[in-house]
Amino acid sequence: MANLDPTYSIGIPEMDAQHARWIQLIERFRAAASDHMLEQAGLDAAAHALEKLLEYTQCHFTSEERFLADRHYPGIDDHRRAHRELEAKVVALLGEIRAHKTNTTPLKLNLFVTVWLMEHIMQEDAAYASFVLGKR
Ligand SMILES: [Fe+2]
Ligand SMILES: [Fe+2]
């Protein structure tokens, strides 16, 4: 299992474990996306890494939403909406990579999407953790 940078721990082991795996896939995509983006092989590697990330993102969000529903988290609707928005951003980025042709211009990826995923843990996820852990 991936180790979680303590900065990203929300204090709920079950979710921390999923976030560790998620961050690992985010980092793999970032690495793939900063390499050889002028070549088809580089684009394919980035698209593949992002497909893996998207798949795990959907899996984590489903699991987290079930976790929040079970605990009657009052902010669940907003949280679900934030998840759908993030998913849409990842899907859009994947579309950009797939549509790109290397014989034109280098693809400038919006890696900010990966920053928003990490920020989601620090903000929205940390907010439900305070509720779940009874800190407010
Ligand atoms: Fe999460
Ligand atoms: Fe979340």
Order of helices and strands: HHHH
Distance between the termini: 31 Å
CATH fold descriptor: Four Helix Bundle (Hemerythrin (Met), subunit A)
The portion of residues forming beta strands comes to under 5%
Ligand set: fe (ii) ion
Number of E strands? 0
Radius of gyration, CA atoms, in whole angstroms: 16 Å
Detail the poorly predicted runs.
Answer: none
Q: Architecture in CATH?
A: Up-down Bundle
The biggest sheet amounts to: none
Q: What general outline do the C-alpha atoms trace? A: elongated
Return the CATH class. Mainly Alpha
Class by alpha and beta content = mainly alpha
How many distinct helices? 4
* Whole-number mean pLDDT: 92
Number of domains: 1
Q: How does this model look, in words?
A:
It is a single chain. The protein is an all-alpha fold and 136 residues long. The chain has one domain: Up-down Bundle (Four Helix Bundle (Hemerythrin (Met), subunit A)). It has four helices and no strands. It has helices spanning 13-33, 40-70, 76-99, 112-132. Helix 1 (13-33) runs antiparallel to helix 4, helix 2 (40-70) runs antiparallel to helix 3 (76-99) and helix 3 (76-99) packs antiparallel against helix 4 (112-132).
Task: Give a topology summary.
Blueprint: H1 13-33, H2 40-70, H3 76-99, H4 112-132
Helix pairs in contact: 1-2, 1-4, 2-3, 3-4
The structure holds fe (ii) ion (FE2) (2 copies).
One fe (ii) ion is lined by residues 15, 19, 60, 64, 121, 125.
Summarize the structure.
The chain has helices spanning 13-33, 40-70, 76-99, 112-132.
